[in-house]
Amino acid sequence: MPTLVPALLVGMVASLILVGVSTAAEQLQDVLWQNLPDALGVGRYFLPWMFVMLFATGVAVGLVVWKVPGHAGPDPASTGLDAPVLPPAVLPGLLLATALMLAGGPSLGPENPIIAVNVSLAVLVGTRAFPGAPERGWVALAEAGTIGALFGTPVAAALIISEALAGERTKGQLWDSVFAPLAAGAAGALTITLVSRPSFDLHLPPFGQPGWGDLLASVVVAAVGAVLGMCVVYAFPFVHGAFGRLRHPMLMLPAGGLVLGALAALGGHLTLFKGLDQIAELARDPDGWSAGEFATMTVVKLAAMLVAASCGFRGGRIFPAVFVGTALGLCAHALVSGVHPAVGVAAGVLGVLLAVTRQGWLSLFVAAVLVVSPGILALLCVASLPAWLLVTGRPFMRLRADGTAAR
């Protein structure tokens, strides 16, 4: 009972910080990608304009990393959802770098830096208000509140926290340990639902009862997604090292922006930004692109996520990985008409997320929530098994201090 009120407060505040940063980024994105090109009389996704915007975003974020106190936090290549507790002076620069990145078009999401900010604030305020409470408890509340807000449901938070607790010795039942984080996740989810009403359902053609062909398709697509994701994981230390040789954020980030501009020219404007709005556009017309176009978007988005994460942009990899999996699944549908779009998308997202995040519950949850169909859950559970065998025990998409991949 004593944990309930703090958990609800942490969840609400975590959600409001996410909403604030996302709203500010969306407003700036409208100015940069709509109002400004319209005023200049150029196309919103005119090729030179994409180069200019991505290069300018690299310059802007580079200035923040270089000059703002705290340098926008640690190297994002070394962080994940389990964020470190940062000094208060670091947080304004990290929020500014995240908002600029989201508005400018690099292929990363807000999850990692927003979790880091919320965790740091929760620990700062919580340990002062309740000196006897352990720091780890405030970390869990902030992570759960932010994850609940990111996905609009506390279920994702509960699954991730329970997965984290699986390797720890906990007192009492597991539900006792996830009670407070679940409350924080529920508060975060309800807050963002009341404010912005997020939805992950892609409204793909309805999927009925699964058949043997659907099972085969899900296993193959998930395995292909896992292999593609692992290609990025293995390339990560080398690409990060290449940008690291530039040694200065005002060289690394603008150079990354130029590479991202070239990738956008190859893959089109749908491969820009974190990817949620773009997958909704793909899902509205699953037959609107050829298999080659879907394959191009898949590869380009993977490369864009790799470059953005390697050159120093502050952001997470979950949402661009969801775009990659969606494009892969629709590519499978375009190649083999018997592959149902819902099966292809869910299996593709599952495989890519397993490789990029190495979190089974999160991968299953996101894949299932994109396709609201009870019949697909059994397929995903089976498809996750061979995909997991392809990724488990192998390097993570996270680097140690010496630049080698973590395991």
Automatic annotation (TrEMBL):
InterPro entries named among the record's database cross-references: Cl-channel_core, ClC, ClC-type_chloride_channel
A GO CC term assigned to this protein in UniProt: plasma membrane
Keywords for this protein: Membrane, Transmembrane, Transmembrane helix
Subcellular location(s) of the protein: Membrane
Single GO MF annotation: chloride transmembrane transporter activity
Transmembrane segments annotated in the record for this chain: 6-25, 46-65, 85-102, 137-162, 174-195, 215-239, 251-274, 294-313, 322-355, 361-391
Membrane among keywords: yes
Top-level taxonomic group: Bacteria
Membrane topology per record: Multi-pass membrane protein
PANTHER family found in the cross-reference section: CHLORIDE CHANNEL PROTEIN CLC-E (PTHR43427), ION-TRANSPORT PROTEIN YFEO-RELATED (PTHR43427:SF9)
Name this protein carries in UniProt: Ion-transporter YfeO
Organism: Streptomyces griseoflavus Tu4000
